[in-house]
Amino acid sequence: MAITSPLSDALVTIFGGSGFIGNYVAQAMLARGARVRIASRNPHQAWPLKPLANLGQLHFAHCDITKEDSLKAALHEATHVINLVGAFDGDLTELMGEAPGQMAAIAKANGAKGFVHLSAIGADASSDIHYARGKGIGEERVRAAFPEATILRPSIVFGKDDDFLNMFGGLIEKLPVLPVFGPDAELQLVYVDDVAEAVAVALEDPSAHGGHTYELGGPEVLTMMQINERIAASQGRKRRFIAMSDGMSGLFASLPGTPMSRDQWELLKVGSVVAPDARGFAELGIAPKPLGLFLDKWMTRYRRLGRFGLENERAKERDAAA
């Protein structure tokens, strides 16, 4: 159902619109009646959005954000711009630092009305962590080129089709004993739909939200150990979790072929929690949703008996306690 919005009939270019977060942001734009241009190296990955759009409302542009001509083509006649590009490999300074600045400069020169840049909690241009440094440089470049841009810094984003919960869900399904890296690291997981709504709200009213930075976190802070325990409980599985030391965690992340890079470990170690004095969801008029609202439902496919599995386990526990 369409939402009455200032973005109705606006042309919104979404860089990185074919990714996990981009899928939800594009839906938020389509629901507001915007015309959406997905700009990506792999725009075909966003083709499943086609049935959600009206005729002519959605189109796709192959874009290399490191090339000025490619950026100019993707930004042609765009009235609003969203940058969602993030990466853990490649030239992170170029991809997440310099390229967003060039996007913002072109958008400003073209007279774009609004620009939303997705950064991350912990972004810092002077950081020793490549990812955090790239994001920090991106913030500086965007702000310099487009002072009225809105910068959003989410914590780790979760959703039913994410790479975070589903990675741990698959491991917990298969292994009776699991190591937990950074067991005490605190994360303020944030629901992907809430992030998409924050993007839309910020873009709808640049006069109120432009020039500001918002940190986006869910309503609760959880440690990595607690997250693993919750996933296991939602699967109805009893698992043994072993807290790994920082030394062992760092060594693991340094090995080739592991699912966690050194950068990801360093980010995990410092945690991802909204700063006490930061603007956030409250200033955007959004009430973020907790992980617990969804976890039991999303873990259904990892249970031994599917949707019947958890109730069977709970029935056994009740019988044992009787």
User: What is the molecular shape?
Assistant: globular
Order of helices and strands: EHEEHEHEHEEHEEEHHEEHEHHHHH
Q: Structural class per helix/strand content? A: alpha/beta
Query: Which strand order do you get reading across the main beta sheet?
Result: 3-2-1-4-5-6-11
* Mean model confidence by pLDDT: 94
Q: What fraction of the residues are assigned to beta strands by DSSP?
A: 15-25%
> What Rg, in angstroms, do the CA atoms define?
21 Å
Cα(first) to Cα(last) distance is 49 Å
Low-confidence stretches are none
Amount of helix: 40-55%
How many β-strand stretches? Answer: 13
Major beta-sheet overview? 7 strands, parallel
Question: With helices defined by DSSP (H or I, 4 residues minimum), what is the helix count?
Answer: 13
